[in-house]
Structures are given as structure tokens and as C-alpha cells.
Amino acid sequence: MAPTRQVAPRFAVGLYRVSTAEQGQSGLGLEAQEAAVRSFVASQDRVLVAEFSDIASGKDDRRAGFQAALLNAANSAGCS
Description:
InterPro entries: Resolv_N, Resolvase-like_N_sf. Helix content is 42%, strand content 24%.
């Protein structure tokens, strides 16, 4: 019998964003995004290692959550 090959876990970082404070306060936009990302990550046999969110325009890539997600993904081996 051939030895079982270990597959390295694959990781993911979630980033959720809404444009307005009203959307952020309602939680509905962020909650829907979180559910969709978590479902996708699970369907791809990945491990969600961190989640970040922003309540700001997507035009500004200096957003704190966006920058933190990029840094976290860059520092996590096997992260996408």
C-alpha cells in the first residue's frame, strides 16, 4: 500500500466592505458578505485564518481593513 501523502492546508483571508456608515451599522451588507466568503472558503477546502472589514469607499486602497488583509495574506504561507 502506498503511503498517504499529506496535503498542506490552504488558507484564506476574508475582507468585507460596505461603502456607507448606514450599511455598516445595519450589518446586513457585511453579514451577507461574511456568509458568502465563509461558504466559498469551506467549499474550496481552505481554512479561513483572518477576517477584516472596512466601511469606506472601495476607491481608496489605503483602507485599514484592506491593508491588514493584504499584510496577513502576505505573511501566511499558502494563503489566497
